[in-house]
Amino acid sequence: MDFGDLIPFGRERRSVPVRRERGEHPLKAFQREFNRLFDDFFGTPMLFGGAGTFAPMPRVDVSESDGAYVVSAELPGIDEKDVEVVLADNVLTIRGEKRAEREKKDRNYYLSERSFGSFRRAIPLPAEIDEDKVEAQFTNGVLTVRLPKSAEAQAKTRRIEVKAA
User: Fold this and answer.
1) Collapsing DSSP states into helix, strand and coil, what is residue 100?
2) How many C-beta atoms surround the C-beta of residue 70 within 10 A?
3) What is the pLDDT of residues 40-77, one digit of tens each?
4) Distances in whole angstroms, Cα of residue 8 to Cα of each of 1, 53, 58, 96
5) How many Å apart are CA 58 and CA 123, to the nearest integer?
6) What are the residue ranges of CATH 2.60.40.790 in the chain?
7) Which of 25, 68, 77, 138 falls between 20 and 30 A from 109, CA-CA?
8) CB 121 within 8 A of CB 55
């Protein structure tokens, strides 16, 4: 068995099902067919990806400053009413759902498409968050959650001078 057969990315796309070759072990044929199934699934457009990509989770950036943690999530095409942000047990959970409907009528045809998808992203955080001062803002498809550090956590922070040798 080739190591490359175990990796589901980067193999050539096949338009016909994989057939068992003469003398090939049945499990190897099954594995190749299973890998093709995953390749086909991950190559279809999904909620946040473009054509030929798979990105069921929104992209998230987490940064830290002296006074707070900032979490930014890209949620293109989603309204703020379809996003839920929850902080519980030091875990920030971002949930949402995207729905799209398209209808087009013309003389010779009628087109009606509906698509939907949901996501959930959980981000563990340190215990030093001041939960009463957490703020979330949604602007132009980007959710920004500011999680201020508690006073105790800020007091524990100490800068250490770096000296050249």
Assistant:
1) strand
2) 14
3) 666 544 444 444 334 457 889 999 887 889 999 998 88
4) 14, 14, 22, 28
5) 12
6) 60-156
7) 77
8) no
What is the per-residue pLDDT for 21? Answer: 66
Token pair, residue 113, equals 């498409």
- CATH number for the domain running over 60-156: 2.60.40.790
CA distance 154 to 66: 7
87-127 pLDDT per residue, tens: 988 889 999 888 778 898 988 888 888 877 888 889 898 87
Is residue 3 packed enough to be buried (19+ CB in 10 Å), middle (13-18) or exposed (0-12)? exposed
State the CB neighbour count (10 A cutoff) for residue 116.
Answer: 10
- Are the beta carbons of 70 and 80 closer than 8 angstroms? no
> Token digits for 23?
């003398």
And the tokens for 131? 């939960």
- CB-based contacts of 150-154 (< 8 A; 24+ apart in sequence): 152/128, 153/126, 153/128, 154/66, 154/67
What is the DSSP secondary-structure string of 123-165?
EE--S-B-GGG-EEEEETTEEEEEEEBPHHHHHH---------
